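Supplementary notes for students who missed Thursday's class. We covered one full example, reproduced here. Read the sequence, then the structure, then the short commentary at the end.
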Amino acid sequence: MKVEIKNLTKKYGKKTALNDINITIPEGSFTVILGPSGSGKTTLLRILAGLLYPSEGQIFFNEKNITNIPANKRNIAMVFQNYPLFPHMTVEENLRFPLESQKEGNLFKRRTFSSSDVQDKVDETLKLFKLEEHRNKYPSQLSGGEQQRVAIGREVIRKPVIFLFDEPLSNIDARLRYEMRTWIRKLHGILKTTMVYVTHDQSEALSLGDTIILLQDGEIAQMGPPEDLYDEPNQKFVAQFIGNFPMNFLKFKSSKNSVSLVIDKQILLPKNLQKRILKENITEGEIGFRAESIRELDPNKTVDENQIVLECSITDSEKILDQQVLTLNYKGENLFFVTKTKKKFTISQKLSVLLHSESLYTFTGDNKRVF
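Structure (token representation):
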């Protein structure tokens, strides 16, 4: 199912929750709506589901305008972070329920599916979700991951045209969350149904989505493949939000013939970057660089004109498996540095780090990225 959202706005009185949203979701794709709390991601999902109606704009499913069609007529599946299972029903009974409750006919209602059809579909779903051995168990007898699989299975069995996930993995532990991410990705590969997944967890978004839609204050900050948002952020907010560690930033200012750091006018930016900034007549802004792109200075190697050296001190050190995460102080500014070296570091130790122009991002004063 192809989904098109055109000029969609949602207002609550004077507050604008979503502002002029335009999105095309290709048929069979896996799209993740990402953003911090209050960015409008759940509101957008609920409008797609028909649980809310937009103040302005339209929604199309395969060219059909469904903007004012109620939720029960859209044939969508919505999976929440809380598993809405019937506690008095077994796994099999929970799966049977949506099929047995479907009826057709205007005057004399009859079941859409025969008993044998229902049983075949239930058996097929139990096998697909690896729940055969839990067939006669009640939800209280299942783990969190098993309950979530039953909840998703109960939606899959209806064969909806689109799946909507509202932070479905928020209530399970980290290890199981990883396993469920892998499982949902495989499920999408089997079903090939359009899926829209809402989360505030950027690691979930990067691992699951074909396309990520990053929202900020009800507007699209950036939309595209996960690697584009990481490698080519179009603004400072995107650069800070995407990545295991927030991007580091240092302010710069241009003079007539050079560009230097505001915090230390003796440090000139790499030569090739200075030329671009001066050519674009950028008077001030910030350079950004990721924690993973910083290198420790090797005193035996020459620093060329497209590199700069920062003399820092270590204020904190944290070991995470094979990585060391160092917090550096550079003239009052905190910088994050991630390294896989096995070298031991100590607090207050002086450390010279190297930045190369190829790993630097340039942002203007209004937080837009220029190159």
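Commentary. The mean pLDDT is 93. The CA atoms of residues 291 and 337 lie 4 Å apart. If anything here is unclear, bring it to office hours.
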